[in-house]
Amino acid sequence: MSPPIRRPTYPLAHATRRKPRRIPLVLRFYKGAIHNLIVVPVTLHSLFTALVVYLDRNVWGALGLPPTIIPSLSIVVGLMLVFRNQTSYDRFWTGRNCLTTVGTCVRNLARSFLASARGKGADAQLTDEERADTEKIIRVLVAILYAIKHNLRAEFNIPPASLAHYPPHARPNTSRPVSRAVSRRNSSEDGSFDSETLSTAKNEYVALLPDGLMGYEDQGLGLPLQLTVLVESFVRRGYERGWFHGPQASQMTVQINTLVDAYGRMETIRSTPIPVAHLIHQKQVLLLFCCVLPFATVDDFGWWAVPIVAIVAFTLYGIEGIGVQLEDPFGYDKNDIKMDGIIEDTRQELMVLLDEWRTKVEGRGTGLGGMFD
Q: What are the strands, taking DSSP E only, across 7-102?
């Protein structure tokens, strides 16, 4: 009897879930491949090589260059591509570590809040206001993860406070996140937005936010920072209620500062592209090398120079295309960080903690087997 196959459970279920590979990676040309980015340059270089071979064989007959020119150019091309890919993967890896830091800080804060939120005395119960306040802040912690994700993807989050003076029936439907690029394309000259376009965006975490919360993104304040103010205020209220002592409250503030710092580093990756001078020179060097290669191979290989140049162009432009995809790792591409799954896993964890804590404070159980005692 074969041993049972381990199935992923809820811890990391969304982030690590994989489908069985039915096609070997060497034969895959979609779902994560970068062939769509390089098919045009590879095709053009192949056609150019065919033209060079035709002219060399049938028109002029003396288009060949010494093959010794190739090694000197290949060294430069290799060094530039190595730098490009190493820099891009470093941005990808740093972004993933920063997301882990943000998730760790949210977990630590939620654990401390739930374990410390209790009434004074042996049999004292939390008031309705204190219970509602604690539940609200746990949801805010989860909402911070979604707010960071949407801000890194340049998407709106919640209605701006500048719309507060409008009657409720006259406000644009901005209760769901929407891409700023889409919003600009659908905005009129007076600044209003197409509500139909806004209503088609995702609605992942609006229910986690406090009722009536308005945003200030149109004034330059990101929602993640706005939500951390609510968390900091809860730490102060917990200290005044006697839930946290001074050093503990100080450590919670450190966790909030660490979260904001990690988000700031993710913003740096998102808003700082590779210098354009490097990108221009790299593209030009790649183009020069692949255009010189047909002249250096036509005498020795004839028509075989066409597939040879196509293979070389496929390799070099493919490496460059990988660097392009990894440069901004916070989007929706197959090769980007699995932000959706990672955040869903953290949300699941915190919601279980919150449900068990609610079971404990309502007297319906011990809460995680007595863990909240």
A: none
Q: In angstroms, rounded to a whole number, what is the distance separating the alpha carbons of residues 179 and 103?
A: 24
φ, ψ of residue 328 to 5 degrees: the values are: -120, 95
**Quick one: residue 118, left, alpha or beta (phi over 0 = left, psi -120 to 50 = alpha)?**
beta
Closest by CA position to 350, among listed 134, 197, 206: 134
Choose among 145, 157, 170, 137: nearest CA to 206. 157
In whole angstroms, give the CA distance from residue 60 to residue 304: 19
Sign of CA dihedral 368, 211, 208, 271: negative
Name the region of 103 (left: φ>0; alpha: ψ -120 to 50; beta: rest).
Answer: alpha
Residue with tokens 């062939």: 35
* Angle, CA 208 vertex, CA 207 and CA 210 arms, to 5°: 90
Q: How far apart are CA 289 and CA 184, in angstroms?
A: 40
Output the pLDDT for position 239: 92
Q: Length of the chain, please?
A: 373
**How does pLDDT run across 283-332, given as a tens digit for each residue?**
999 999 999 999 998 888 889 999 999 999 999 999 999 998 889 899 88
Query: Quick one: average pLDDT of 335-339?
Result: 90
Q: What is the enclosing helix (H) or strand (E) of 326?
A: helix 305-327
Tokens 């290989």 appear where?
Answer: 301
Helix H or strand E encompassing 255:
helix 246-271
Take residue 77 and report the two structure tokens written for it.
């091309």
What pTM was estimated for this model as a whole? Answer: 0.81
- Per-residue confidence (pLDDT) for residue 7, from 0 to 100: 59
| Residues contacting residue 263 through CB under 8 Å, at least 6 positions apart | 98, 102, 148, 224
User: What are the Cα distances from residue 244, in Å, to 137, 254, 368?
Assistant: 15, 14, 21
Tokens 């060949």 belong to residue: 64
* Residue from 341, 334, 338, 329 nearest 270 by CA: 329
End-to-end CA distance of the chain: 44
Q: Output the six-digit token pair for 104.
A: 């760790």
Q: How far apart are CA 214 and CA 160, in angstroms?
A: 5
- With tokens 């209003």, the residue in question is 192
H or E element: which one contains 223? helix 223-241
Asked if residue 10 has pLDDT above 90, the reply is: no
Count CB-CB contacts under 10 A for residue 143: 26
Average pLDDT over residues 178-187: 37
Q: For residue 244, what is the DSSP state?
A: S
